[in-house]
Every structure is written in C-alpha cells, then in structure tokens.
Amino acid sequence: MSTQNIEELARANVRALTPYQSARRLGGNGDVWLNANEYPLAVPFDLSQQTLNRYPECQPKQVIERYAAYADLTPEQVLVSRGADEGIELLMRAFCEPGKDAVLFCPPTYGMYSVSAETIGIEYRTVEARADWQLNLPAIAEQLDGVKLVYVCSPNNPTGNLINPDDLRELLEMTSGKALVVADEAYIEFCPDATLAGWLQEYPHLVVLRTLSKAFALAGLRCGFTLANKPVIDLLLKVIAPYPLSTPVADIAAQALSAQGIALMRQHTDELIANRTWLIQALSSCDCVEQVFDSHTNYVLARFTASSQVFKTLWDQGIILRDQNKQPGLAGCLRISIGTREECERAIAALKPLPGAAVSREQA
Ligand SMILES: *Cc1c(COP(=O)(O)O)cnc(C)c1O
Questions:
Q1: pTM of this prediction exceeds 0.90
Q2: Which of 112, 218, 327, 337 gets mutated to test ligand 1 (max ligand atoms within 8 A of its CB)?
Q3: Peptide bond into 138 cis (omega under 30)
Q4: What is the pLDDT of residues 148-163, one digit of tens each?
Q5: Which domains does the chain have, with CATH numbers?
Q6: What distance in angstroms lies between residue 85's CA and the mean position of ligand 1's atoms?
Q7: pLDDT digits (tens, 9 = 90+) for 4-25
Q8: Ligand 1 interacting residues, C-beta cut-off 6 A
C-alpha cells in the first residue's frame, strides 16, 4: 500500500487538519524560551509511589480532594485529566454531536478550541472579540443556534485581559438551558479574585477549566482540572479514558497541591508579577514597541513596528517569542512569556537597539 493510499484512508477532517502550532513543534535553538507561558525554572519532586505494577485510580482521590479544597469546591465538582486540553476535548465529546452541534469561541484566543473541534469533526463558529477584546454579546446571541459549548478564555490567551464579569453573567443568562459556558481559567492564579468557580452553585451550565501547567510550573506533568456541577462531571466521567493519569503524575500533582506546594506556587506567582511590571515598563521605552497591553497573566502582548524582523532578530539570539500576527486584530503583535528577571533583561537588551517606525520605514 502506498503512502498516498494511507492518506486517503484517513478521515477527511483529519486530512484537512493543521496541527496545533505548539512552541515545541515550531522548534528553534533558543536558550531563552519565552513562547509557551511556562514557568521558567523546574520545581523538583520525588516520586513516593512504587506501585507501577498496578493500574492507577481513574480519578486519584487525594488529587481530587486537594484540588477541591484549593478551589473551594466539593470533590464531586472536580474532574482531573491529562491537561486542561483534555478537558476542552472531553466536553466536545460528551456534549456535541458531530455534524449537528457546534461550539463557539471569540478570537483572538487560545488555539486548541478550533483544533479539538476539527479533530473530532464538529462545527466551530467564531465571533470576533470587540476592539477592546471584550465579548461581542449581540453577535454571540445571533450565532447561538445549535451551539452546545461556548468557550471563553479569561484571562484571555494571548491578549492577557479579563472578560467583564457582567458580560459573563449576560452570556450565562442567554445560554441557560441551551449551551454550556466553559470558562478557561488556565492563568487564574495570576488574578485569583477573578475566578468564576464561586458561580457554579448559581449556574448549572457553567464549566471552569484549570491547569497545573502555568502558575504551578508543571507543564511537563500534563495535569488539568474541569470544575462543574455533578451532572456535568458525571457525563465527562463516561467519556474519559479509564486511566487518564499515570501513577507518577497523580503522585506529583498531589504534592503540588499540598499546603507547601500551593505556598510555593503563590511565591512564584508574586515573583513573576513583579517581573511583569518590570518588563512592561522596559518594553514601553523600546523604540520598536508601538504598544504594550496590560496583562493579568504570566505573559505580555505587545505591538511592534516591524514584528517579523523583531521576532527573527531575537530568535537568532536564542530568545524565542510567540508570533501572534495571524490572529484577528493582532497584526504586528508578539507575545512574551514572563521568565526570570535575567531572561526579561536579555529580551530587553535585544529589543533596545531595534529601530522605531520612522527608521524601519526608511530602511524598507
Ligand atoms: C496552556 C493553556 C491550556 C492548556 O493547559 P494544559 O493543562 O497544559 O493542557 C488551556 N487553555 C489555555 C488558555 C492555555 O493557555
């Protein structure tokens, strides 16, 4: 059988698929990785479980109990999965009929909502955010027919802004009885007061996604959480794999969610926020930076006068940023993850000599 035939055997939607452009897939020989919103330093852990001959628990009890306590919810409102990305997909698999139902989200936003929808073969609709990156509620209301899931990322990746709580309430009212609202809170530890977890008792159709990949410094662990009321969690438990987390993952996640682990996460978060303040200030004084956007996360979005050259110049110096040019409304924008202070300084030292608008136009 030729390679050609193998390709033809695949599902049409999979053939048409562009895989998620993860930072790791894009490559680069960097030594300053500021493109994946990772915590810049590794936090050490020891494995305490030596029972790898046995299958793990489907939903490891200690991890669930500790996350529930951390999120101020009950254990039956918590599902743990292989990253928040698996949560995004489980919701589609549990709630959307391929070829019939749709999901909706508001670009510019996180790339996995469309990738998961395409992989599973369900329609996705997009309603672009307004110029201030808030929800366009009237446009969403018009598009809701057949929509089962509305993904809202807050704070939003890659823009860094929070979605207005009043708008989120309005969205929850207009979707009541029709669709679930999925609040992606991957970065909520950088603005914990903004969480919607406390709204779960009021809204049976609200879902909150969380992860250990960002503030908890465990992107390599692949561990995330879906918070929702029991009827939603019970449906997700029907479609999740029997052993979604390996024993070492559950072991380390439980340690990360101990009182000590949470205290360490909060200390790291404070340090990154201080670095963010420094970086925003320093970016504002670079000639090549046109605009720096405020952030409630561990990254900063900025608009540059010649973003492709800026990206390439830093890339060649081993400083890897994330290009956001292709997202609607983000022409000229690069996203910079907050690293250590030294890494932020390296980025600024590389940006400082680059010319502003007038000079780069002369050169072009
Ligand atoms: C990083 C990220 C995720 C994915 O988290 P994982 O737990 O690593 O799968 C989900 N949503 C957003 C907005 C993210 O930035």
A1: yes
A2: 112
A3: no
A4: 999 999 999 999 999 9
A5: 3-40+262-359 (3.90.1150.10), 61-259 (3.40.640.10)
A6: 6
A7: 789 899 998 888 888 776 666 6
A8: 37, 83-85, 110, 153, 157, 184, 186, 211, 213, 219, 224
